[in-house]
Amino acid sequence: MKFLLTLLAALCLTPHLLASVRILTAKNATPRELYAAEQLREATHDLTTPGNITILLATRDNPLLAHAQLAQFWPGATESFILHRTGNRIYIAGSDASGVLYGALSLCDLLHAQHAIPSTLDIEDHPALKLRGTAIGMQKPEIIYEGAEYDYRYTPQNFPFFYDKAFWTRYLDMLARNRYNTLYLWNGHPFTSLLRLPKYPEAQELPTAQLEQNIAMFHWITHEADRRGIWVLQGFYNIHLSHTFARAHNLPYHLTTPTPLATAYTRYAISEFIREYPHVGLMMTLGEALSPHQGANWLTNAIIPGVKDGLKEIGSTTQPPIVIRAHATDITADLKAANPLYTNIDTMWKWNGESLTWTNIRGPVLDRFKELIANSHITIANIHLLSNLEPFRWGDPDFIRQTVLNFQKIGIQGVHVYPLRYWDWPNTADNPPLNQLDRDWIWFDAWGRYAWNPNRDPQKEHAYWVSRFAQRFGTSQAGEHLLNAYQLSGVCAPELLARIGITEGNREVFSLGLTMPQLIDAKRFGPAQTLWTGDAPPGERLDDYVEEEAHHEPHHGLTPIAVADSAAQSSAQAVTEAEAAAPFVTKDKAEYGRIVNDMRSIHQLMLFYQAKTQAAALVMLYGYDHDAAHLHAAEPLLAQSVEDFRRLTALTNTTYRDAAAMHTSQRRIPVTGGPHTEHWRDLLPVYQKELATFRTRLALLNTTLDKTQPESNANIQPWPQVSFTLPPGTGEEFTLESGIALLGDKYAKATRVAPEITGFKGIRLDLKQHGPVRFTLAQPAQALVGFFKIHGLTGPSNTDAENWNPVLLNAITLDRGAPLDVWAAPLAAGENELDLSQPYVVLGFIAQNQKTQQRVVFTTAATPGQPPNLDWLFE
Ligand code: ADA
């Protein structure tokens, strides 16, 4: 007998004899429930468990669960489940098919964590947020389709991933595992890539075979998504037309105002979309092309009628949700007009603009969200482009948890998460590129986890994420250090952008740094005020900080200097943590190496900002008290920032392809986007030049600036002029004195003029005038010209630069915009012409042998009491 028992015990250890897990689904199980069963089959495949276990999964009211003693769901429950074990039976009861899926996935999670079937099970769960989604851009880093922003045709050349079923399976499985239930595809005008549109054959933009392949693929993707509980929504911008249709009807590709034809076409395209893809949703951006005040008209005359036509075609009486973005439209008027016509409108608005800056919102951003919540069904927070996080690894789970907790407090019931690199999906910026699903796993997982439930114990969460890192890197010690590194580095860019950045929009790439003028005079670069009034906790900007310093007043809230210091410190600790993981990393050492490099890069960037912010504050203080000692103290700090940036460049030179995925000229800060301004190595010369200029100006200042008499202009006489004649044509003669407009007769009035050129006869051009200006000179001369600041340039453009030399700096202050420097170039006597590519004004002519000693003319503010313009110190 004892022998028999021993034999049985031995047999009990043999997995295949014992691992009998039966999985039963309802007779009429939906594809979603069958997918759930598939996941369970996989999860139980290798399990060793004593006794036969039967798992029954179905909706709560299905006969399969008739004998189970299970609680009822509350009225209106969706996506909810009960997981219960009685004896050897495990019941997964869903409020609906999604509930069944989530019950099954929860059981899978438990099986993976415990490597055994739990002996007791009594769980009820449901999601915190109703809509939990990710986004994919059917959009690219460059504008490639006939100059039209956001328009890209779905083709294998443009979007190879779209045709890759293995990729989609992996991506959709990941989404399901993280309980996402929505997926948004973004594009300008997707209809001609996904629909036949027989009523307007001239609208067809793709070869028929390509179109058919797209239609088949889209059906496949949306069906596969649906099996996983994921509702696909297709996004579109308004009014964007098929390009072939536009050409055929002599219309622009994008319209600011509806026309009857555009209305009929769009209405038809939308109805066809609903007919072809009844289970796919629509999300729309009413602007940017369409004028904001036309949104209501367009929505009620084109879009909603199109949706209703489509519903009629498929014989449906239920109105599916449509998602309207509040971006670039008068959403108040839109909703007022649309709500009486359509009962199921969801809205979407950007959380923290196009960056991640805070776990919360306040002021105008909060007010906008409240308005949307009050006037629509579900309001979705759009975690839009992550312009301040690109291109580095980012995954601070607690930041995300707290953010979702705040969604709940505010009443936001949906989240829509962009990938960390949007315009180049699915590639990362690493060199060579990695797949974002691999590199940025924590980004997707953390948003999904907390959109499902943010009310989790932070300590247990810490342990959970440690275990997730441990799975990837081999040991829990490595996990602990790496999670710490991610969290310590994760807070830096969000906190710092709001204090010193220009905008939370993708107009700025934070990882490429800021120029001194951008730091010392952010106002001149069109800052987005919501960055600090809505998307950050109360605190100071650099100008507030310096003003208070200058007036010896107390500071309030977070200060730029303190935040820059703490970012430098926190990122230093992140490096220490990442490096400390080294002895414990037993798996994926290549990725570990890249993480360390990222942490070092983030730290260098924060050191750059720390030094440069301090330098900027000193320069700004000089604006108040004219104590040149501040400038001298700023110089080593500025030099340090350049050295930090050089190190950052060295760290990223071979490891990164670029700093941001958007390569268009829509990017303006720190410099205009384009093929030669994508990388840190492109910006390093900009910062080096800035330092060199500052040193030259400082030397100049030492010789010309008398602290007790800062404006030493009193005894300077005008230079003798060379006369000219201006035939009719381009340009208008004027006399240079304060109060005169220098660009046409409206723009940019001079407030002060350097004495050397006061009273000069010049030639001013209209802003819109093009072509050369022709004139005749009485003798050989030097032409004096002022260039208006454009795209960060205050002198001649590269093409013209060779002939021109700066002679007077900060020589004419203006009522708006940066002061003008005076540049000189030699011209022969007789007929001449000037044709310069920067907007400019001809200030007059002086003799070729006239001595011009370069000097800084105005160092004090144009308006008394205001800090002066200090850009001339750097440009
Ligand atoms: C801004 C941004 C664009 C796009 C747009 C939108 O204009 O620069 O890249 O994201 O917003 O649709 O929200």
Provide a descriptive summary of the structure in words.
With 875 residues, this protein is α/β, with parallel strands linked by helices. The chain is 39% helix and 16% strand. It is built from 25 helices and 25 strands. Helix 9 packs parallel to helix 10 (295-313), helix 18 packs antiparallel against helix 22 (560-580) and helix 23 (589-625) packs antiparallel against helix 24 (628-652). The radius of gyration is 32 Å and the shape is globular. Residues 1-18 and 705-710 have low confidence and may be disordered. Alpha-D-galactopyranuronic acid is lined by residues 285, 327, 354, 385, 505-506, 666. Residues 285, 327, 354, 385, 505-506, 666 line the site of alpha-D-galactopyranuronic acid.
Short description:
With 875 residues, the chain is α/β, with parallel strands linked by helices.
Please give a handful of descriptors for the protein shown.
single chain, alpha/beta, eight-stranded parallel barrel, seven-stranded mixed sheet, disordered N terminus, binds alpha-D-galactopyranuronic acid
Computed structural class: alpha/beta
Distance between the termini: 95 Å
For the biggest β-sheet, the strand order reads 6-7-8-9-10-11-12-13
Q: What Rg, in angstroms, do the CA atoms define?
A: 32 Å
Q: What is the typical, i.e. mean, pLDDT?
A: 93
Give the total of beta strands: 25
Shape descriptor reads globular
The parts where pLDDT drops under 50 for at least 5 residues are: 1-18, 705-710
Strand content: 15-25%
Largest sheet: 8 strands, parallel, barrel
Ligand set: alpha-D-galactopyranuronic acid
Helix content: 25-40%
Number of helices: 25
